[in-house]
Amino acid sequence: MAPSQQAKSFKSVRGLLAGLAAGLCLLAGLSGANAQAPAKQPPAGPQATPQVAPQAAPQAVPGFWDPRRRPERPDLSRLTVIRFLTETDYPPFNYTGADGNPAGFNVDLARALCDEIKVTCTVQMRRFETLVDALTSNRGDAIIASMAVSPQLRARVDFTDPYYRVPARFASRKDAVMPEIRPEYLEGKKVGVIAGSAHEAYLKAMFTDAELHPYPSDDAMRAALRKGEVDFIFGDAISLAFWINGTDSGDCCAFSGGPFVESRFFGEGIGIAVRKGNDVLRQALNWALFRVWEKGRYTDLWLRYFSVSPF
């Protein structure tokens, strides 16, 4: 989504729409080969110069499960039904289908988890801001709504392991795409970013020699790149992926460099929320998430809904 409280801090940081993509390149914990480390980069040397890439990096389906750390099957005998809560309008993660029923990536993932656990599954759609209250007042058992894990929310609910994450990425015009971006490559370059965002804070901390151009909205920032008023923009990779592949971009632009996933700036990831202390359900969902990923069903869902990779 979309976004998030951070993934709804997405709904706030969320100017998202969402989207992603293809392959067997599963990134355990997002530390795989396609993830560009946001920490210190090795010195490039006096002769290091950025090279222009002919095209964007291959798409990849993110994975957050380590096959070497297989969770034990928990006692599922006390689970007979899981009442999932989700939000009403955050496509392609959550939306109302043509038949009037809940649809989207989150909804289909919830049903896959229930199928793995072998329990009845219901999905109720509510406004995002009402979901936590509905969960804590026992009007549902779990929230699957692109909800970002945060210290504030952890005080009210417990979370499963992350089932996706929203990286940050640079985008440039297609004639200036870089396969790799380091701070020294952007010295003196004009970089658009949303004013007051975590992305701006990251640039100020890590890309100190870039010339930052803050914008009040995603639309204004993207228009500046399309018109060539800035060299790069830096923001939420999910919404950028949809923009790049959509009609609004005019086929002007592409990703440059890889994803940045520093949790201190961009959050811990997106998890499923359960009531505080409900370890039976939390452990069951963690086990089912691993199983759905291990069987390839997570990849199938990802590729069904997301055509452009932010990773």
UniProtKB/TrEMBL annotation:
<feature type="domain" description="Solute-binding protein family 3/N-terminal">
    <location>
        <begin position="81"/>
        <end position="309"/>
    </location>
</feature>
<feature type="compositionally biased region" description="Low complexity">
    <location>
        <begin position="46"/>
        <end position="62"/>
    </location>
</feature>
<feature type="region of interest" description="Disordered">
    <location>
        <begin position="35"/>
        <end position="72"/>
    </location>
</feature>
<dbReference type="Pfam" id="PF00497">
    <property type="entry name" value="SBP_bac_3"/>
</dbReference>
<protein>
    <submittedName>
        <fullName>Amino acid ABC transporter substrate-binding protein (PAAT family)</fullName>
    </submittedName>
</protein>
<dbReference type="InterPro" id="IPR001638">
    <property type="entry name" value="Solute-binding_3/MltF_N"/>
</dbReference>
<keyword id="KW-0732">Signal</keyword>
<feature type="signal peptide">
    <location>
        <begin position="1"/>
        <end position="35"/>
    </location>
</feature>
